[in-house]
């Protein structure tokens, strides 16, 4: 693996309420110089939850996704609040978006969305031993809740409305964990 | 599923060479109004390639990812050029980044990265029947090529340096396709 490129300069180039674009002037170890743009990462990270109920159904939500201007089917997810651990955030989001708390929470993996130009990553968390518990969320409209048999995720991942790469990864990572940690 | 929110207004709010942020003023079907920000989508889409050689190894690259300021292990990927189909782009990227062309290319699924605030999506393409062929790329330094036994992707997806959600999804989608379309 080559030595990391040297960052010669970081320049803020565009700013909005949510997005902060910066230009990176880089010198690679072979002497080549390039300028790359990336979204600066702020905040405390994010969580995505694979929550399995006692009938082995995974809990999904259908929500409006502004990037696509369409409704999508995906896993519950959200930002980690200041002072929260990832597992605490997962349990809170689950209560806000799906109406369950979880007595068992396991961090499966921290995955990235588009690492070439974003530092954002999300903690994929497996939640089991669920109990009914509702916390108020900040959604503009109630989320539709959908359950799906976890044994049938092959059908789910071929649906056009279930196409978020991180959610597909999350389901397969959960299956892999459960295969490797049975019982 | 509720009716899609009405877009009341789209306002450009920040611009850089690569990123175009817009604000969406939305009215949800329940009357609730919100402003969301998203990255505007331009270009012709993108491709990510799961290329399997005759020994059933998947072709990986190790490249610098500016979002993380680190080297990552991932699948070959890139933007679709104007006038190219997704399969043509996959075959070109494979020749640029890995040094192989493919006689067999199958589109597995179009997946999104962060659909709540980005419209970007990537076509996951399975490539087989490879032959040596090199096209010049535009990388600042030569990419390191890594091959990995496709039967051992469980070990790969647990590595810290293989954490791009779309690449994890791509591997599992390819395995699912090959299980459903044997021989």
TrEMBL record, chains A, B:
<feature type="domain" description="Nudix hydrolase">
    <location>
        <begin position="42"/>
        <end position="173"/>
    </location>
</feature>
<protein>
    <submittedName>
        <fullName>ADP-ribose diphosphatase</fullName>
    </submittedName>
</protein>
<dbReference type="InterPro" id="IPR051325">
    <property type="entry name" value="Nudix_hydrolase_domain"/>
</dbReference>
<dbReference type="GO" id="GO:0006754">
    <property type="term" value="P:ATP biosynthetic process"/>
</dbReference>
<dbReference type="InterPro" id="IPR000086">
    <property type="entry name" value="NUDIX_hydrolase_dom"/>
</dbReference>
<dbReference type="InterPro" id="IPR020084">
    <property type="entry name" value="NUDIX_hydrolase_CS"/>
</dbReference>
<dbReference type="GO" id="GO:0004081">
    <property type="term" value="F:bis(5'-nucleosyl)-tetraphosphatase (asymmetrical) activity"/>
</dbReference>
<dbReference type="GO" id="GO:0006167">
    <property type="term" value="P:AMP biosynthetic process"/>
</dbReference>
<dbReference type="InterPro" id="IPR015797">
    <property type="entry name" value="NUDIX_hydrolase-like_dom_sf"/>
</dbReference>
<dbReference type="Pfam" id="PF00293">
    <property type="entry name" value="NUDIX"/>
</dbReference>
<keyword id="KW-0378">Hydrolase</keyword>
